[in-house]
Design a protein that fits this description.
Oligomer: heterodimer
Distance between the termini of chain A: 28 Å
Order of helices and strands of chain B: EEEHEEEHHHEHEHEEH
CATH topology of chain A: MetI-like fold
CATH superfamily of chain A: MetI-like
Number of helices of chain B: 7
Radius of gyration of chain B: 19 Å
Shape of chain A: globular
Structural class of chain B: alpha/beta
Number of helices of chain A: 10
CATH topology of the largest domain in chain B: Rossmann fold
Structural class of chain A: mainly alpha
Shape of chain B: globular
Number of strands of chain B: 10
CATH architecture of the largest domain in chain B: 3-Layer(aba) Sandwich
Distance between the termini of chain B: 44 Å
Number of domains of chain A: 1
Number of domains of chain B: 2
Strand content of chain A: under 5%
Chain lengths: 249, 256
C-alpha cells in the first residue's frame, strides 16, 4: 500500500519539477499545481460533473450485469442458441461505438438513455464472455455429482454452474467497470450538458487545459476506485474465490 | 438386490467409431454384500459402476435394482467419486448436506446426521472449513460422508482411495469397513488394487481387458472383522493369487 502511493507521489513531484524547470507551456502539459488550482476553483461545479458521470457509469454497469448474466446463461444453454446469438454479439462489438453514439442520440433523444446504452455497449461484451466461459468450464465431475444428486437443470445452474463461475464473473466485472468509465465519457463527448467528458470538451474549447487535465485525473481515480470496489465485493462476499483472474483449481 | 442382466455398453468415438466398453455382463449382488470390481485399466469398471448408478444409459440389457430397471440416478444410491469432488465454495458441512439439499430432503435432523457422520470419520471440528483447507484424505472422508448422508442402501465407490498416499489409504480402508459393519449397505467398489479388493470384498468380480467382460468371480473367505496383517492368511493369498492369475495369466504372477 505504501509503495504504490509513494510511486504516484513521486510521479507528480517529477512532473511538477519538470514543468517548473523547463517552463513547459500549459497547453502542452500543465503543472500539477496549476491543475489542482483550476480544478478546485469551483469545487461544487466539478463535484457535480463527477456525480453526473458516476451516475452514467453505474447505470450502464448495472444494465451490463442485468443483461450479461441471462445472456451468458442462454449462450451456454445449447449449441443451437449459441450459434444463433453469438454472431449478433460479435456484430455489436464490430460497430464502432463512437460512430454509433450520435445516431443513438437521434433515435433515443437527448436524455440519459443514449449515454447509458453506449456505456452498456462498450462494457458488456467481455462480461458475457467471461461468465459464459465460467459456466462451461465446470469440471465434469461436479456436473456428474449434480446428476447423482438428481439435480434438474435449474438446480445445476444455480447450485453448481453459477457458484463455480463466480471467479470468472468477477474477472468480467473488473473489465466491465473499467470499460464503463470509457463508455460513459465517449457518450458524454457526443451528447451531454454535464459530466466529466462534457467538462473536458468545453474546457479544451476555451483553452482551459488545466481543468481538462483535472477532469482526466478525476476520471482515472474514479476508474481505480470502482475497480477496487468490485475487488472488495469479491473478497468480502466470496472469500473462497481465488480473487485473481484465473480459474480455481 | 442389484441385478445386472446381460448388459453391454458402447461409446461413439469422435470419428464415429463404435467402441465397446462392456459386453454381456451378468452379475447379481445380494443386499448388504460388499463387491469389488477389479480389472486392467480401461476394462470398463467405472463404466459398469456408472450404469448401476444410472449416470449412463445401458446400450443393451438392463440393470435392475429392487425389481425396478435403473433409468436415472436413484435417490437411495450414494456415490463416491475418484476425486473428492467437493464444492470449493461450500463448507464441509454444506458439502455433506449437498445431496439432501438437491433432493429437497433437508430436515432439521439432517444437520445432526451430517455432524454424526463427520464425527464418525474423525472430521468433527472441521464442519465450517472450506475444502481447500483440508488434506486429500480429509477431503475424501468428507466425500464419503456426503455419499452416506441420505442413508442410501447402495453405495457405489469409484476408485475412491487411488489418489491417496499408502498410509491414508489403509486408514480409510479400515474406516470404510467399520462404517459398513455399523450401517450395512450394498457396496460396489471399483479398484485396481488386488490386495485392497481382497481386504474389502465378499466377492471380487474380475473384468477382462477391453471390451470388459466378467472373467471370473472370486469369493473371499477371509473372516471378518478384517484388519491389516491378515494378508498372510491362506484365504487371503489364495484369493489374491487367483485374481492376479486371472488378470495377468498364469506364470506372470511370479518374478523370474
Amino acid at each position: 500500500m505504501v509503495l504504490p502511493i509513494a510511486a504516484i507521489a513521486g510521479l507528480f513531484l517529477v512532473w511538477e519539477a519538470a514543468c517548473q524547470m523547463f517552463a513547459v507551456p500549459a497547453y502542452i502539459i500543465p503543472a500539477p499545481s496549476a491543475i489542482w488550482k483550476e480544478t478546485t476553483a469551483l469545487p461544487a461545479n466539478v463535484a457535480w460533473h463527477t456525480l453526473v458521470t458516476a451516475k452514467t457509469v453505474l447505470l450502464g454497469f448495472v444494465v451490463c450485469v442485468l443483461v450479461s448474466l441471462p445472456l451468458a446463461v442462454l449462450l451456454t444453454s445449447s449449441p443451437v442458441v449459441a450459434a444463433a446469438i453469438y454472431p449478433l454479439l460479435v456484430l455489436t462489438q464490430a460497430i464502432p461505438k463512437v460512430a454509433l453514439a450520435p445516431i443513438l442520440v437521434v433515435v433515443l433523444g437527448t436524455s440519459e438513455l443514449p449515454r447509458v446504452v453506449v456505456t452498456f455497449l462498450v462494457a458488456f461484451f467481455p462480461l458475457v464472455l467471461s461468465i459464459a466461459s465460467g459456466l462451461v468450464s465446470v469440471p465434469p465431475e461436479l456436473i456428474e455429482l449434480g446428476r447423482a444428486c438428481r439435480a434438474g437443470r435449474a438446480a445445476e445452474l444455480w447450485r453448481i454452474r453459477l457458484p463455480y463461475a463466480v471467479p470468472f464473473i468477477f474477472s468480467g466485472l473488473k473489465a466491465a467497470i473499467a470499460l464503463a468509465v470509457v463508455g460513459a465519457v465517449v457518450a458524454e463527448f457526443v451528447n451531454a450538458d454535464a459530466g466529466l467528458g462534457y467538462l473536458i470538451q468545453t474546457s479544451t474549447a476555451f483553452f482551459k487545459v488545466q481543468l481538462a487535465w483535472g477532469a482526466l485525473i478525476i476520471l482515472s481515480i474514479m476508474g481505480i476506485a470502482l475497480f477496487q470496489i468490485v475487488v472488495a465485493i469479491e473478497r468480502i462476499f466470496f472469500p473462497w474465490s481465488p480473487g485473481i483472474d484465473k480459474p480455481p483449481v | 438386490m442389484i441385478e445386472i442382466e446381460n448388459v453391454s455398453k458402447h461409446f461413439i468415438s469422435r470419428d464415429r467409431d463404435r467402441i465397446a466398453a462392456l459386453t454381456s455382463v451378468t452379475l447379481s449382488i445380494r443386499r448388504n454384500e460388499f463387491v469389488c470390481l477389479v480389472g486392467p485399466s480401461g476394462c470398463g469398471k467405472s463404466t459398469l459402476l456408472r450404469l448401476v448408478g444410472g449416470l449412463l444409459p445401458v446400450s443393451q440389457g438392463r440393470v435392475i435394482i429392487d425389481g425396478r430397471p435403473v433409468a436415472e440416478p436413484r435417490a437411495e444410491t450414494g456415490i463416491v467419486f475418484q476425486s473428492p469432488t467437493l464444492l470449493p465454495w461450500a463448507s464441509v458441512l454444506d458439502n455433506v448436506l449437498f445431496p439432501l439439499k438437491m433432493m429437497k430432503r433437508l430436515t432439521p435432523d439432517s444437520r445432526v446426521q451430517a455432524r454424526r457422520l463427520l464425527q464418525l470419520v474423525g472430521l468433527d471440528g472441521f464442519e465450517g472449513k472450506y475444502p481447500r483447507e483440508l488434506s486429500g484424505g480429509m477431503q475424501m472422508r468428507a466425500g464419503i460422508c456426503r455419499a452416506l448422508v441420505h442413508d442410501p442402501d447402495i453405495l457405489l465407490m469409484d476408485e475412491p482411495f487411488s489418489a491417496l498416499d499408502a498410509l491414508t489409504r489403509e486408514e480409510l480402508t479400515l474406516e470404510l469397513m467399520r462404517l459398513w459393519r455399523e450401517q450395512p449397505k450394498t457396496v460396489l467398489f471399483v479398484t485396481h488394487s488386488i490386495p485392497e479388493s481382497v481386504m474389502l470384498a465378499d466377492r471380487v468380480v474380475v473384468l477382462s481387458a477391453r471390451p470388459g467382460r466378467i472373467a471370473a468371480i472370486v469369493p473371499v473367505e477371509v473372516p471378518r472383522p478384517r484388519r491389516f496383517g491378515m494378508e498372510g492368511l491362506d484365504e487371503f493369498q489364495r484369493a489374491a493369487g487367483r485374481i492376479r492369475e486371472l488378470i495377468f495369466g498364469t506364470g506372470r504372477s511370479t518374478l523370474h
